[in-house]
Structures are given as C-alpha cells and as structure tokens.
Amino acid sequence: MQIVEIDGYNARCEAKGEERTVSLFLMQDEALATGDYVMVHTGYAQQKMSAEDARLAWELYDEMLATLEKPE
Fold it and tell me: Per CATH, which fold does 2-69 belong to?
C-alpha cells in the first residue's frame, strides 16, 4: 500500500482505490514518508518496498485471484 498520510504510529494508506488505516508501530525505527510503499499484513506495515516491487506484487496477486475465479 502507498502511504497517503502519517499521524504518529498510524498511516492512512491506499491501494487499488481502497484506503485503510495502518499501524506503523512495527516499523518505528524505519524512516517512512508520504508516498512510500509498505507491505501490510493484518493492519500492520511489515516492510518498506519500492514502487516497482509493489506493482509486481499487485500483478502477482491479481493473477492469483484471476486463477481462483476461473470456473473449472
């Protein structure tokens, strides 16, 4: 997800038109700024990532979902 706004240990993040409040608590030693991309799991930012890595991850997730949605 891309960080839209940071407020202390919380950030408003966006991905694919969806916004979520994400905890930055686990990444408090990492320098994060608006516009950065983070891997989010269960509401917590886990890892900072490049825009390219974020794009590739979403492509992979979309491919996996498309496979699951295909009727057999």
Answer: SH3 type barrels. (2.30.30)
